Amino acid sequence: MRRYLQIISFFVFFVMPYAHADFVEVVAKIKPSVVGIGVHTPTSRPQNILRGTGFVIGDGRYIVTNDHVLPTLLNESLLQKMAVFIGTGKNAKVREAEIVATSSLYDLAILKISGPALPAMKLASGEFIPDGSFIAFTGFPIGGVLGLYPVTHRGIIASITPTVVPAVSAEQINLKMLKRMRNPYLVYQLDATAYPGNSGSAMYDMKTGEVVGIINKVFVQSTKEAVISNPSGITYAIPVKYLQQVLREHDISI
């Protein structure tokens, strides 16, 4: 028993501080690669609407996010543009972006911005990481309220599960769900809670900062309105292997 307590004490007083310092450095390196995804309307107030999060890869001009984060319709009469927001707070700037690839199956989208390159994140290998692995994600959980200030959450891989979600009744089953039931793919379930604005955030290894997945969705146990005050949802992330597949299918070299 005494030996056990000595080991625990050594870990708490000597190992944990170094691990914490390493993670601080990882987060500081990650934050410049985190961007907001939304709509810029120069003729309206507010001019910028944040819809989700994205992150930079490749040569510093490719942006990854969720397909469902992209605006479905832009009002040309109001000069609306799909935009990538870079920087933080009042120093945030707007970059126009074009869509270069999407995947409705994996709910992924790849954009390209013009202008100077941004710091890029490195993608991990396509192998699944095991349950219990420590991960983190940085994004804009409640962007419309808090503004462009990246927030970091951490947790572990709780499970690797199929994408199929049981429907409460037959009326809730749609064509898209039927297709996934025939050919489900595996995703990560997390013990960390994401929020609506986190969609598209990079999920990364806490030690290396390499991207291992993309935050995708949260199944809320109560209502969407209560998710902020009562974060009771289950968070899922798309493994990075599917992003690499989309990149190959569209001949995007990073």
Notes on the protein architecture:
With 254 residues, this protein is α+β, with helices and mostly antiparallel strands. It is 20% helix and 34% strand. The protein is built from four helices and twelve strands. It has helices spanning 2-30, 143-146, 175-182, 240-249; strands at 34-40, 48-57, 62-65, 81-86, 93-103, 108-113, 134-139, 151-162, 186-190, 202-205, 211-219, 234-239. The strands form two sheets. A six-stranded antiparallel barrel has the order 1-2-3-6-5-4. Strands 7-8-9-12-11-10 form a six-stranded antiparallel beta barrel. It is globular and about 50 Å long. The termini are far apart. 34% of the residues are buried. The model is unreliable at 4-18, 166-170 and 220-232 (pLDDT under 50).
What's a concise summary of this model?
The chain has 254 residues and is α+β, with helices and mostly antiparallel strands. It has helices at residues 2-30, 143-146, 175-182, 240-249; strands at residues 34-40, 48-57, 62-65, 81-86, 93-103, 108-113, 134-139, 151-162, 186-190, 202-205, 211-219, 234-239. The strands form 2 sheets. A 6-stranded antiparallel β-barrel has the order 1-2-3-6-5-4. The chain has a 6-stranded antiparallel β-barrel with strand order 7-8-9-12-11-10.
